[in-house]
Amino acid sequence: MDHAKRHFLQALGAGVMLAVSGMGSAMAETVTRLKLSNAEWRKRLTPERYDILRNDGTEKAYSSPLNNENRTGKFNCAGCGLALFESATKFESGTGWPSFFRPIAAHVGTKLDFKLIFPRTEYHCARCLGHQGHVFKDGPKPTGLRYCNNGLALTFKPEKA
């Protein structure tokens, strides 16, 4: 099998796996896109958050306070505020980044990333396209997936008591 065909099939398989694992209901919610200029993003975000969300950067492992966030609530995109993960889907992966086994359906998008030569599945906020992290197939049940997230790409909103 040639190189291009193999990568296409890998991408197709990853997309099917992510679509099935993220399904919450037959009627998926539609997320309205937020489009801002680079100047508007720079005004809205700190330089560190801009690098991660707009340039696909990565923060240093074990640097995020969200690694230790265990309250009930939602983890939201730091760029636009869209809720991406429920706290019940967070788990300790031992990687140094906040990790989740399932996103909120239709709130994340994916694309194939070849920045490290081998293909990885990158995921981003469906509203603002802000880079969040990568999906790996070494997570816990029920999905077997690990959404490895940059802590600076998220904010946490605790559930009201």
What does this structure look like?
- The protein is of the alpha+beta class.
- The protein has one domain (3-158): Peptide methionine sulfoxide reductase (Metal Binding Protein, Guanine Nucleotide Exchange Factor, Chain A).
- The chain has 3 helices and 9 strands, in the order H-H-H-E-E-E-E-E-E-E-E-E.
- The longest helix is centred in the N-terminal third of the chain and has 20 residues, at 3-22.
- The chain is globular.
- Residues 3-27 have low confidence and may be disordered.
Annotate the secondary structure layout.
Elements (H helix, E strand, L loop, with lengths): L2 H20 L15 H7 L2 H9 L17 E5 L5 E4 L3 E2 L7 E2 L7 E6 L6 E6 L5 E6 L9 E4 L4 E5 L3
Antiparallel strand pairs: 1-2, 1-9, 3-4, 4-8, 5-6, 6-7, 7-8
Question: Quick one: CATH class?
Answer: Mainly Beta
CATH architecture: Beta Complex
User: How would a textbook summarize the main sheet?
Assistant: 6 strands, antiparallel
What is the straight-line distance between the termini?
56 Å
Stretches where pLDDT falls below 50 for ≥5 residues? Answer: 3-27
- Give helix % range: 10-25%
**Rg over C-alpha atoms, rounded to the nearest angstrom:** 16 Å
Assigned CATH superfamily: Peptide methionine sulfoxide reductase
pLDDT averaged over residues: 86
Identify the overall geometry: globular
Number of helices: 3
What strand order characterises the main sheet?
Answer: 3-4-8-7-6-5
Give, in order, the helices and strands: HHHEEEEEEEEE
